[in-house]
Specification:
The longest helix is centred in the N-terminal third of the chain and has 30 residues, at 32-61. 74% of the residues lie in helices and 0% in strands. The protein is mostly helical.
């Protein structure tokens, strides 16, 4: 599972690079197969990143302390629910969760706009993939959650006691849904600028995305305060 998770992140990085290039070139040259290929890379990226996240959850739930991130944020004595939420207990997992949510939203955008906003979609897709690419570069080269230790410790250091409460099970995902949701209107705005379609159609398209992101962000901040 460690190797599978690691190689899933590598494949996701390559898919981002390809999808970004295909979307930009397809948009500039009006090449429909290339545009569709870029959108399909978003779908594939989401599926493979889900596999990477499942691998990390499995490593937490099975106490694989040979993994540096698992050893640093989990232990054999904490309840299972907190082993599950330890996924976002540190930087590596939080970045992976952030990328996962962004990949999910990008997937939904592609599915929703298979026959709509066609002039904007190549550049919107490229913008979303460009943001995801940043996270993929960081996850692969700076804070890979699948890095291993030379020797597995007998037990992990455990999760920060401040994070071991029910609010913290829901609070970070809600914040991520709010923050990441706002990437969608940004991507459509960039798509409108790059395509020259400066009417209000993209605002109509993204109104619901903006409202949903605002609701999640409000809920997450409220939970954090509680």
């Amino acid at each position: 599972m460690i190797e599978l998770g690691y190689y899933c992140l590598v494949v996701c990085l390559l898919l981002c690079v390809y999808g970004l290039a295909a979307s930009v070139v397809g948009g500039v040259t009006k090449n429909l197969p290339l545009i569709r290929s870029g959108e399909n890379s978003v779908v594939a990226h989401f599926a493979i990143l889900v596999a990477a996240a499942v691998c990390l959850w499995y490593l937490f739930l099975t106490d694989e302390f040979i993994v540096e991130y698992v050893a640093g944020y989990s232990s054999s004595t904490i309840p299972t629910r907190f082993k599950f939420t330890a996924f976002w207990g540190g930087q590596q997992g939080s970045l992976l969760l952030w990328a996962l949510v962004l990949s999910l939203f990008s997937f939904l955008v592609v599915i929703q706009n298979r026959s709509r906003n066609r002039a904007l979609m190549p550049y919107t897709t490229a913008t979303l993939l460009g943001i995801i690419l940043f996270f993929m570069v960081v996850l692969n080269f700076a804070t890979n959650p699948f890095n291993t230790l030379e020797v597995a410790p007998p037990d992990g250091r455990g999760l920060n006691p401040l994070l071991q409460n029910y609010y913290m099970i829901i609070h970070p995902p809600m914040l991520f849904l709010g923050y990441v949701g706002l990437a969608v209107p940004f991507a459509f705005a960039m798509g409108a600028l790059m395509s020259g379609r400066l009417d209000t159609s993209w605002i109509t398209t993204t109104r619901r995305w903006t409202l949903v992101a605002w609701v999640f962000l409000t809920f997450g901040i409220t939970l954090g305060g509680a």
